[in-house]
Amino acid sequence: MGRFVFKLPDVGEGVAEAEVVSWHVAVGANVAEDDPLVDVMTDKVTVEIPSPRAGRVLAITGDPGDKVRVGAELLVLEVDGDAEAAPREKGSSVAAANPPAASPSAPAPAPSVAVKAGAGQEPGPSPEKASHPPTAFVTRPPGAKPLASPAVRRRAHELGIPLQFIPGTGPGGRIGHADVDAYVALGGHTAVTAPGRLAERQGIEEVKIIGLRRRIAERMQESKRRIPHYSYVEELDVTALEELRGHLNARHGADRPRLTLLPFLIRALVRAVPRFPQVNALFDDEAGIMRRHAAVHVGIATQTPQGLMVPVVRSAEGLGLWEVASEISRLAAAAREGKATRDELSGSTITITSLGPIGGIVTTPVINYPEVAIVGVNRIVERPVVRGGQIVVRKMMNLSSSFDHRVVDGWDAAQFVQELKALLEQPATLFVE
What we know:
Low-confidence stretches: 85-138
Oligomer: single chain
Radius of gyration: 31 Å
CATH topology of the largest domain: Chloramphenicol Acetyltransferase
Number of helices: 7
CATH architecture of the largest domain: 2-Layer Sandwich
């Protein structure tokens, strides 16, 4: 028998370290060649690393949330034959995927959530001390005086317990010493809540921020730390746009992708960017260089079961309306299923974020660093507006956009959003060169 030291392989060009997301094995488990060992994360992509050898796990390195450098020891196996110091790298393969369920032979990792008593609180009573609370007692209407003997009143006063909160199990709801004891044993709470009153809750849940959630937190912190954000909100009348969208879906819905608002907004971005190239850019603040891109690579902020991801519609200026709709649908599905590649999740030059029907009235979106602009879509609502001196019902929507004030002046940002507004309110202009 020998010892086989498996080191973290290079899981992507330029990646120096990876975060451990979850283990599929534990010390003492037997694994076969190509059995999944561990899921690691790099650049929002989860990578499953298989075992290069069959053997028994002697040691593992890194808990979920820990970062391991490429080439560092990851796992030690007891194998048949001579010991090896490192795995064969070319034989190892990795595949981007969601973390699959642990194999039946591998014990599940310990949960990262723990419940503790709050600071300054006494822990709950032990099972031996905690008596079962009475299941029947007389409730008192608000303001009614509780019934109790002077001795019980004095004891409750010494304990700092208002009598009106203690349920009485004696005749007519009379409170006895046993009722006070039960109330104290339950930490000052009753098992049965008075009508109209919610039960108080105790405990603190600690959730370790790891994986994609931690990566999102780091990116948001970096963006807010580096970029002086400012937001600009404009109201749009999208009645005509919604009529056109509904007409196109009714006419072509059977054989073409369904059109949402986003393909039209991307079309508007493509038309507006040549006049305002400073918004379709990446800013290298350390080098002091802003790189304006001719191609419009639109990031689409997408909520997934793993967290927020931003798949990218590349070179949107070269795509037709339904091609954009199809690409958005494909990328969103890949992101939600955990199948999006690193290339599909990077390289955007401007981002759109939308909460759909729950988009609220106004948002202040955070810029996707190192970009310099993000356009936020709020929900569409029907409401009365004044047009031509008449009050009419129109479909209205707000665009809430944020910009990097270091390189995009407020005037330019306002002009850019006004250009988007003009294009979307007169949708025929989206298709007129």
